[in-house]
Amino acid sequence: MPDAVVIGAGPNGLVAANVLADAGWDVEVLEAQPEPGGAVRSDRGAHPGYVSDVCSAFYPLGVASPAMRALDLERHGLRWRHAPAVLAHPLPDGRCAVLERDRDATAAGLDAFAAGDGEAWLRLCGLWDEIGEPLLRALLTPFPPVRAAVPLAVAARRAGGLRVARSLLSPVRSFGAHEFAGPGGPLLLAGGTLHTDMGPETSGGTLFGWLLAMVGQRYGWPVAGGGAGELTAALVRRLESRGGRVRCDAPVASVVVRGGRALGVRTAAGEPVRAARAVVADVAAPLLYGGLVGWRDLPAALRADMDRFDWDHGTFKVDWALSEPIPWASPDAARAGTVHLSPGLDAMTGYSAQLATGRVPAEPFAILGQLTTSDPSRSPAGTESAWAYTHVPGRVKGDAGPDGITGTWDERERTAMAARLEDAVERLAPGFRSRIAGRRITAPPAFGVHDANLRDGALNGGTALLHQQLVFRPVPGLGRAETPVAGLYLASASAHPGGGVHGACGANAARAALAHASPAGRLLTPALGALTRLLAP
User: Fold this and answer.
1) Which residue has the higher pLDDT, 115 or 163?
2) If you count DSSP H runs as helices and E runs as strands, how many of each does the chain have, helices first?
3) What confidence score (pLDDT) does residue 145 get?
4) What's the predicted TM-score (pTM) here?
5) Domains along the sequence of the chain with CATH
């Protein structure tokens, strides 16, 4: 009987398993798919000679997160690889905003858009120097961040206190207009905001955009050398070196609950797997509550809360094997690992509005990855392994474009949406299509086949909007990994702090399990239960 059973070998599940194994626990991870990784996997699905990343690819939070850094995965074979530039946003007129690895170089590029914008960027970098690391620790540790709160409060007061908080919680459009005279700086920030399901007018959007930009400025947005699967492989090797086990093709059908406590799980094959101390679920909240755990074992209020759970937008992705690098009209875009595709902030607002009303965007904002530019091992010399994705409504009500896409995502609709993505590239890189040697299209339903947590390509385990963050994630309560079932802990991106390959959700769940299993846990468990009932009766 293992001390802990972890459901799911995605990054959060594997980080949780490693933290528990470091504490001396015997850990078994059960994964439904034939291989571990969840959304962190690679293959040769677009072309036999090219390595593609099945879902995620670039990992700014992977190199910045204290939870991931503490695992020292480089000792287990992981190698981070960086493109010459972090991020580019080319415009139709040939200009290009570039996030360079060096902040002064980024500032110099923004000065070309408008005099003084470079200085404005350096002020944002200075704010990061003041509060960035304390903020990361506060955001990526269990909520409330008791230990991280004091250093963050001191740093925030020194940086400007409530004025800084107000700025970071503002919409990125208004923040960009206050800070910059030209479009370059706002585009770098707004693109980061749109990595979530926020738009340029969403409150709190500046925080996400600034955080991603500054992490890129400080750490870069790297890929895993050899493919995303190498990040997973390093996590598995580390776990196995500590006696943990990962069992694939072992889907879990239910969590076994007796007397309000999780005793283990039952697999789809009917095999019971007992857990002496804890069950840790790297499972999206709607799949855990009312799914693996029946409603009879959960409070009635939780069912009502889960009826109001909001997923983030769906995702549509295309992988390409290119015979040559992308022929960008702006040469600076060729140096970046990640390229944002949109003609400007107004177009990004239009795209967000169409998503909000359930329509497939006519001109999608796309995030494009140049994998070979970042890691030359991904394809033969002189070629490029690339991909792009965009968001689409989880439930399609109409098509803002001309193709009548309904959300069935049959071959006609997949082809039409892929053409929109390729049109977006072609407008900024004439001749792009002529270099396509292989292609794979991943429509929203296929993401759930890769990883059941990614329903229709919802990448963040639930919306990133403020009403489902902190004490509201995934439902009103404490924003912690504990669940209403003793000994069961939520480790997926549905838990605080949410989406991104940072491992914090898994690490937080593992630390909660360790705390409750300690002698002091005899007091902690009822105290947290009482506090949760007080806050969310």
Assistant:
1) 115
2) 19, 21
3) 66
4) 0.94
5) 4-32+250-309+459-535 (3.50.50.60), 41-101+313-451 (3.30.519.10), 117-219 (no CATH)
